[in-house]
Amino acid sequence: DNNDTTQRERPTSEQIAASERRRYIYSGLALCTALFAFVLQTETAGYISATLGYKKPIFMMYITHGSWIWLEPLQFFAIGFSKQIMKRPGFSWKHEWKSHLNNLRGTAAIALSYSLGNLSSYMMKTTLKLVCALTVAGASWYIAVNLTTPSDLTAIYNTSAFFAYAFSVPILKDKFSWLKSGSVALAIVGVVIVAYSGPSSADSDFPNRGIGNLVIAVGAVLYGLYEVLYKRLACPPGDEVSPRRQALFANLVGSLIGMWTLALVWTLLLFLHLTGIEKFELPSGSAVGIIIASVIGNVLFSASFLILMALTSPVLSSVAALLTIFLVALVDWLLFGKPLSLQAIIGGVIIIVAFILLSYASWAEISGSGEDIYDDLD
Questions:
Q1: Which of 67, 180, 220, 363 has its CA 20 to 30 A from that of 146?
Q2: DSSP calls for 10-52
Q3: In 3D, which of 254, 367, 378 has the Cα closest to residue 16?
Q4: What would the mean pLDDT of 171-194 be, rounded to a whole number?
């Protein structure tokens, strides 16, 4: 009623503070989950390729990105079962489904208010744009991995953090900040130090190194663009939508990206199979379990990373992702006995310092005011 509407438009300072606390908590949980999941994905993907010898990179990209389609169904059932376990009064799956759809439609409508057109059409077109940028960026990594050195690959691809910042100024209307740009540059320096801390590869091993570096550079630009487009086109503003609804909507967007991947990228697999570039072969029985673990790692990472970008900014999320580079090196040392050089430690510390500086610079962006805080109480 009108009374309720008036009340919703005027949340108290305590309710706003509680909503901001939830934003920090959700962001922290998303970051921790993303770091853990990325290590799981990286270690299993490396084992599949190097140890099991299953080298079908585009197929692996297809099933990992395609598996995002499960994000929304898993989210719905997780929420429903949690309410059922807590014995929420009046709970029914039919009512929960209706409430869930209304929630997502309401959030989508707020995102749509910045564009013109039909709601369903807007969502489909938006996620198609995102999947195009993401697929080309992802494919560039898989193509370049066989053309250039691992060090070049890591160092160049992670300059996507710089391009995310470069695109965020004109597209998201972010104000230029020397502290932010310096933090991003410092993080990339840290990545370069870690990337080149191991044994170097001979140029003779990679005769097409220059082409590989060019391909991965294009991928870095497109991945930075993908992150900023996601924030601009598929994330409702934080000062109008609660952290909970932003997180729920992020997983819907992820599911639609997964749907488009499954619907379109199989044509690329067919082309690669017919031309002999990547012959389609099912993995052996021993590889299936590890592939499933890798897919689970990717789904967890992608869901938490989409949520993190929705709650914070593409630049902060991108630099946060750079923490995984040092984390993977640390896990390799602790679990597999791979030596961790002083150079790698220094690079890792630099990345951590850069992330802390950027978090400080982005603090105002993470907090929001005037949110639909009542939604968090539903």
A1: 67
A2: S--HHHHHHHHHHHHHHHHHHHHHHHHHHHHHHHHHHIIIIIS
A3: 367
A4: 87
Beta strands in 246-330 (DSSP E): none
Backbone angles phi, psi at 55, to 5 degrees: -110, 80
Alpha-carbon distance of 99 to 20, in angstroms, equals 24
Residue 284 has pLDDT above 90, yes or no: no
In a domain, 162, yes or no: yes
CB 31 within 8 A of CB 352: no
| Residue 5, in any domain of the structure | no
For the chain, give the mean pLDDT. Answer: 83
The rounded distance, in Å, linking the Cα atoms of 322 and 315 is 11
pLDDT at 366 over 80: no
Q: For the chain, what percent of residues have pLDDT higher than 70?
A: 89
Banded model confidence at residue 373, pLDDT cuts 50, 70, 90: very low
Q: Do the beta carbons of residue 212 and residue 144 sit within 8 Å?
A: yes
Query: What is the per-residue pLDDT for 264?
Result: 94
Q: In whole angstroms, give the CA distance from residue 212 to residue 200.
A: 16
Alpha helices of 10-158 — where are they, by DSSP H?
A: 13-46, 57-66, 71-85, 93-112, 119-144, 150-157
Domain that holds residue 323: 13-377
Q: Whole-angstrom Cα distance, residue 127 to residue 233? A: 9
> Is 4 within the bounds of a domain?
no
DSSP, residue by residue, 309-350: HHHS-HHHHHHHHHHHHHHHHHHHHHHH-----HHHHHHHHH
pLDDT tens digit sequence for 118-161: 778 888 888 999 999 899 888 887 778 777 777 777 778 888 88
What is the three-class DSSP state of 215? Answer: helix
Residue 174 DSSP symbol:
P
Angstrom distance (rounded) from CA 96 to CA 115 = 29
- Split into its structural domains, the chain has a count of 1
Q: How confident is the model at residue 2 (pLDDT cuts 50, 70, 90)?
A: very low
Phi/psi at 344 (nearest 5 deg)? Answer: -65, -40
Cα–Cα distance for residue pair 300/71, rounded to 1 Å: 9
Residue 17 located in a structural domain: yes
Residues 357 and 183: beta-carbon distance below 8 Å: yes
- The pair phi, psi for residue 87, each rounded to 5°, is 55, 50
